[in-house]
Write a structure and sequence with these properties.
The chain is mainly α. The chain has five helices and no strands. One of its GO terms (molecular function) is misfolded protein binding.
């Protein structure tokens, strides 16, 4: 793959070039150059190194060695990280919102169940009161009948005594 090809640049942009070189973003030009030279000595194919690793180190060094390219890379990297962080926050917020909605739905269902149970308990109380009132009414009617019979019996006894 030619050194300046688009595929080579895309591959380099998808990796963190500073990590590939073993330095931080804050490394000076001299530190980047020293790290590059040390890595090249380790991975050079003439010294039994891997050719793919050698190409990877060269590709990683292409951007940080040029101040304009490095500045552009750092800006793009920060924007990409900003966007990635934004996406991550949105996904986290969406997950939190789904969890919140699920909790709210459960609470609504729990409240509805509690309301249904209260209504059923109140209905049982109303039915029990209605039965008590019916029994009380029957007891009163029975008492009234017994009173009437007792009165009739007394009147009947009075007339018989005369």
């Amino acid at each position: 793959m030619p050194r300046g090809s688009h595929a080579h640049q895309v591959e380099a942009e998808q990796r963190d070039l500073y990590t590939d070189l073993g330095v931080t973003k804050e490394a000076t030009d001299a530190e980047v150059r020293r790290a590059f030279r040390e890595l090249v000595l380790k991975v050079h194919p003439d010294k039994q190194g891997d050719a793919a690793d050698f190409r990877k180190v060269h590709a990683a060094y292409e951007v940080p060695r040029d101040p304009a390219k490095r500045k552009r890379y750092d800006q793009q990297r920060d924007e990409d990280n900003g966007w990635a962080n934004f996406i991550r926050r949105m996904q986290t917020d969406a997950r939190a919102h789904r969890e919140y909605e699920a909790r709210m739905e459960k609470e609504r269902a729990d409240r509805k169940d509690a309301e249904q149970k209260r209504w059923e308990a109140a209905q049982e109380i109303r039915e029990a009161r209605a039965q008590d009132e019916k029994k009380l009414k029957m007891d009163r009617e029975e008492a009234t009948r017994e009173k009437a019979i007792a009165q009739e019996d007394r009147l009947h006894e009075k007339h018989q005594d005369k």
